[in-house]
Design goal:
With 592 residues, the protein is of the alpha+beta class. It has ten helices and 34 strands. Strands 18, 19, 20, 21, 24, 25 and 34 form a seven-stranded antiparallel sheet that branches. A hairpin with a 2-residue loop joins β6 and β7. The radius of gyration is 26 Å and the shape is globular. It starts with a strand and ends with a strand.
Amino acid sequence: MAVSVACCCFSFLNAPVKLQPSPLCFVAASSPRAKLNPENLKRLTVRVKEEQDCNNDGGGTQTMSAFKSSFGSKKDKKDSSHPSSDLRNDPAKIHDASFLDAVVKVYCTHTAPDYSLPWQKQRQFTSTGSAFMIGDGKLLTNAHCVEHDTQVKVKRRGDDRKYVAKVLLRGVDCDIALLSVESEDFWKGAEPLRLGHLPRLQDSVTVVGYPLGGDTISVTKGVVSRIEVTSYAHGSSDLLGIQIDAAINPGNSGGPAFNDQGECIGVAFQVYRSEETENIGYVIPTTVVSHFLTDYERNGKYTGYPCLGVLLQKLENPALRECLKVPTNEGVLVRRVEPTSDASKVLKEGDVIVSFDDLRVGCEGTVPFRSSERIAFRYLISQKFAGDIVELGIIRAGEPKKVQVVLRPRVHLVPYHIDGGQPSYIIIAGLVFTPLSEPLIEEECEDTIGLKLLTKARYSVARFRGEQIVILSQVLANEVNIGYEDMNNQQVLKFNGTHIRNIHHLAHLIDMCKDKYLVFEFEDNYVAVLEREASNSASLCILKDYGIPSERSADLRDPYVDPVDDTQALNQGFGDSPVSNLEIGFDGLVWA
């Protein structure tokens, strides 16, 4: 059985890096970040120009121009004195190339949350990875290399001193993080890398980093095998990726990949392993790096990649197209629209999307890419930013229409990562409530979570922004909760007859309750009842007995704001199709 495994940074000492149930896997983090001035970031942003030409048959072609950045001018690129200019003539000289000095080793100490015991942290562990200089005192690496970081240090090639680094910006979905080092000594004689254009198939590529097997810098060579929309393990997202056959090993993550001109064409971040394949590695292209930096420049923070929020079916079958009154061999069928997306206001199930910003969409869900290639339709969405407005050409009941949709980041009912790092929780008379999340499922194991919760996690979309699946994770035994000690990992649906919208809503309902009894209604029609005054009296004793600092997480002390704008959303049922492309076993369906 084939298994895709992320090339995460090499971890050692106290704990191994955990693997998630998805085909590509990582650890996720959040930590206090230093502020980064967006004006300074403008000099870091790689400008990407896209030119679209139309053929006589109406099909579009899309050409990527070369990337330009402040890291190197055209004059620099033509300067024959630059070591990288000799690589095309003599690749053996790569060990003398000055751009290797811009690649550094990353040492990170991680302290991940304990999702089963959400009031505490897990035991810390350490890992190593790679990073590289991009100018203005900044380094670029993978987000998974510095997730849940408590300390980050970097070391330059040929130096025995480690320097403290700060995580300025982290993009979980694109697996990129921006670091800074304040020490002036670290930057003496440093030359940032130049970012190159998107490569072509069979272009030579050199991967540089600090993988396991030694302490010094490592260089491996290969070629570009494929360029397509790829599943990103760390962010559980689908973005443009470069597949290469150069060896990538744990510790290479965050290191640059170079072309023959010594330009950085991307960031090494994951590999695919199975018994049938070998030497399949993946690189984050500079288009994604540019999007990451531009996002922060525009918004003053990282907002993430937007989505359309629709489940699409390919229209390869002629009878299906004829039934839908689609006159040409193009278009994709809308099978489901997420209630939290702006597309729910203008798109309906049964609509056929035939164009995206006037670029025609093929019946296999692909669009023209560069001069003679095609790529998945969702690539066009990934080129946009949160808040961008796109124009869709659709066919509805045989009638062509034009509609506009605002793109927003996707709302996950069961999140893959926890914002703020530490999970929310509240303890009532020893009953521990927390939101269901993928890290919790991973930590508890699927057998412990149960089939019903797993089904909801895999097949349910959020009905409104802010919705969560709140579960009773465990019961801290005390005489006040006798009879409930064995309850664990069960969804709580109602409190005193009111549907629970999220963990903050539950805390609010409990705080406002003046009734004699606290009545919790769970899945499978199970009911737990506590006497309110007795529960309040026992809380301090329970916290003391179990060494818990607080009966709730800090975020639940803030005033509660109702997230529901439309009360009808509460009455919508759960879906019947997977919420992730990783869960769809049929090639004919895909989330955009």
